[in-house]
Design goal:
Structural class: mainly beta
Order of helices and strands: EEEEEE
Strand content: over 45%
Oligomer: single chain
Helix content: under 10%
Shape: flat
Radius of gyration: 15 Å
Length: about 70
Amino acid sequence: MNKELIIRSSSSAVDFALLKDGRLIELHKEEDGNKFNVGDIYIANIRKTVSGLTAAFVNVGYEKDAFLHYHD
């Protein structure tokens, strides 16, 4: 069983497609206007690690860096 998650992003919407063995299983589309929400998935660059907290500050494209704890 081979699963793939495909994400297509544009300035007005984000599309998510889940494929199983090359066949479409799920398709979701989010229109523009959504603000940042907990649980969203982002590609990020690690800016600073904090070993005492077992966490990191990551750049997800916003003005301020996001805080990512190892439980998250």
